[in-house]
Amino acid sequence: MLAISANDETRTKFNEMKLGKKIGYLIFNIAGSDIVVEKEAQKGDLPEDYLDMFMADVKSSGQPRFSVLDWNHKLLFVSWVPDNSASARNKMTFASAKEPFIQELVGIQLKLQATDDGELNREILIATTKSTV
Question: Burial, 66: exposed, middle or buried (Cβ in 10 Å; 0-12, 13-18, 19+)?
Fold first, then answer.
């Protein structure tokens, strides 16, 4: 089994996001045995509706990425593992690291796994984070 986990900076950034409410989203990649922050988007630097920007950033590398989106007062964990461009080894690495990583991110309220544009789009993000109150 792979020993992949969030590094200290990753945990710190997530806690800043959760408690400070100033980070709109974080995108993570796996580097060696660490899950690292690849991109941080501050809400102050984003348009009011930043869903399209979030999706573009997650998908931009064409490779698997983890991300956390702060939308509608909820923290949504997104696992993006595109079917058509990721190697089998890369897919397996992300698949084995996903659940342990989510457990490290205390406070995640929702999860979404996506492999193509039909599973990661504006409508799905809005429906997933919709308030049930």
Answer: buried
